[in-house]
Amino acid sequence: MQNKEKITQLIRSARDSDRRELTEYESKQILSLWGIPIVRTELARNVSEAVQVARKLGYPVVMKIASPEILHKSEAKGVKVGLNSESEVRQAFEQIISNATMYKKDAEIWGVTVQERIPPAREVIIGLVQDGAFGPTVMFGLGGIWVEVLKDVSFSLAPVSELDAWEMIHEIRGYPVLEGMRGEKMADLKALVDILQKIGLLAIEFKNIGEIDLNPVFAFEAGKGARVADARIILRSNGL
Amino acid sequence: MALKSEVLNKIWLDRTNLEGGRSVTETCGNLYVAKESTLATPSQRILSENITRLREFFNPTSIVVIGASREPSKPGNVILRNLKKSGLSLYAVNPYAKEIAGVKCYSSVFDVPGIIDMAVIVVPSKFVIQELKKCVARRIKNIIIISSGFSEAGEEGRKAEEEARDIIKESGTKLLGPNTLGMLLPSKKIDTFFVDEYTLPRPRPGDVAFISQSGSISLAFMDFAKAHNIGLSAFVGLGNKLDIDENQLLEYFGEDEETKCILLYLETFSDGRKFAELCKEICKKKPVIVLKAGRTARGVSAAMSHTGRLSKGSDRIVDCVLKRAGVIRAYTEEDVLDYTAALSWMPPMKKGGVAIVANGGGHCVISADLIESSEDIQLRLAEIGEIQKEKIKSLLDIPISATNPIDLTAMATDDNFKTTLSVLAKTETVEGVIVELATLQGVSERMVKIVQNFFKNCGKPIIVCVPGGDSARKLAKKFEAEKIPVYPSLKRGIYAANVLLKRGMWLDRIKNFRR
Prior knowledge:
The complex is a heterodimer. Chain A is an alpha+beta fold. Chain A folds into two domains: about 40-115, 2-Layer Sandwich (Dna Ligase, domain 1), CATH 3.30.1490.20; about 120-235, ATP-grasp fold, B domain (D-amino Acid Aminotransferase, Chain A, domain 1, 2-Layer Sandwich). Chain A is about 40% helix and about 25% strand. In chain A, helix 1 packs antiparallel against helix 2 (about 25-35), helix 3 packs across helix 4 and helix 6 crosses helix 8 (about 190-205). The two termini of chain A are about 20 Å apart. Chain B contains 18 helices and 20 strands. In chain B, the strands form three sheets. In chain B, strands 3-4-2-1-5-6-7 form a seven-stranded mixed sheet, sandwiched between helices. Chain B has a seven-stranded mixed sheet with strand order 9-8-11-10-12-13-14, with helices on both faces.
């Protein structure tokens, strides 16, 4: 209950500052409050905080610009990966901030998010859209070329039943990738089912959410869960 | 029926009494709040009120045709003649004629005596509104507007529709159309088509309800249905869906006991979410087949996200949503016909192991290729055990291998098929059979009885393919006459059989998936 209020608050504060698009950091906070596992991510407002967080999360880390005005982080050269030491973190922080200011002068900058790097996993995309005919609809697909080129995705109306979620996963053509190829183990499909269902419920509970991208979501081997690595939540345009 | 007349009489006598009508509209506004939970919820009561109301709509005892015409080729004349066959009390409105086609004419709907259950409006679009007003004032509760020239024609027409909506609001009127063929109820011979039976023979009465958003494709389907012995419980043309829409009708035919299979041709969804929810319930009881056209023209409001861009206008959403709801999706008018025959005449399959029995090697090879290499075919060739194989071989007087697909060769006779089928009936791995016939001297019309008996005795679905021309068609018709699905190509037969599996798999998933 408390978490619901916190989510409402996060959405409201974006609304109040006339933003439809929540930052990655805000989006992840919402997901986390809703019980969806995310790759551990913390906001560092200055260099020393960044170093502190990195030490806490353990090296290597990933750092990304945190600004409500910069949503295409790579385009702004605001992402650094594989940072292995304190000096690299310090250097990255300064660079990200200066790149961001170059990309957009006067941009409001909250700082830099520091997130743990995670072991290789299969990447999937989970999303939500408000369809003209069907209303809130959840999407599932495999990351990378599977969605980019082949548009290999499946859908279900929110709320998503457990059966719906299993069907969504089995329906994509790239399913064998999740099942495991060349000696790979099966991905943790149960964890993906859980995220799909929770995203459906999130859209039902918070009607002003218009679109969601969880891209990528890392799916580990069966039993080891899945975690959202990057997220975007976009509010509906009709001032709800 | 007596009760209904009584109520209508009362309303007719007491023109100021709007109570009955108002309650109906109010409740209809709240339709389908029902979720997955089934019986005895408060919303169920509301649903059944909608059904009650539509039941009245589909059971009129008196009809007036407004805009009856003396000109035999005009819709206002054809419709009157078609409706005459129903034997119901029929009236016509035409200020200039005394009688048309033996039906007495009145100059206004107000002059028609007694109770009128239904009005069919066929006047030119510019006169429709005034006639509609009269009908509502005359307390006619069921109206079909055949006339076109409304929202499909432009802004002015769209405004006229708005006006019409206001006129019927709170009057308890049910309105079908405008811009529609109206309806065809073969068992009651109620027929509002503006095409005569000579030009377009009507399908026989049966158990398929067909709801359609297009006129021309519907007429083509009528012709199909007639030619392939598919019987209809009802045809309803949605037209511009001013009032009655596909969801209301779906709900009605879902409960209708005469209807065993529902078919929809749709270009737009009135409310896709309701549609999906309704289908999910109805598909547990009877198959629903949907031909959703306009696949590329769907809009999604925003697209700021990756998901948004991938979904925008995506037909994949429709595909997925319909599949989850248990709907069998058709992509062409041919599919509609093929799937209807299969689903309304044969039971579904759960696992999809089929045996193919043919009197031609080519038939066997093509079918095996289709089954094994088509991505959208889930059927597979059933394994036939050695014991059964030996049995088939020992019972036949021709040398064959009895491996599935079973090629009985060009020498095969009716009796060879009969023998083989009798073994397959008892072969557990075989869930269904596809019989593929080349028209040769060995096979005769007796095959119909043989296939029929197979189905009667073991209950396994059986589908027949007779590829070819006129001689194939001649044989195929004999199967259709006995409600055995028969197809003019191997591919169409295999896809139809696959649809039986799709339905069976869905039913199985819904029933057996544990939470």
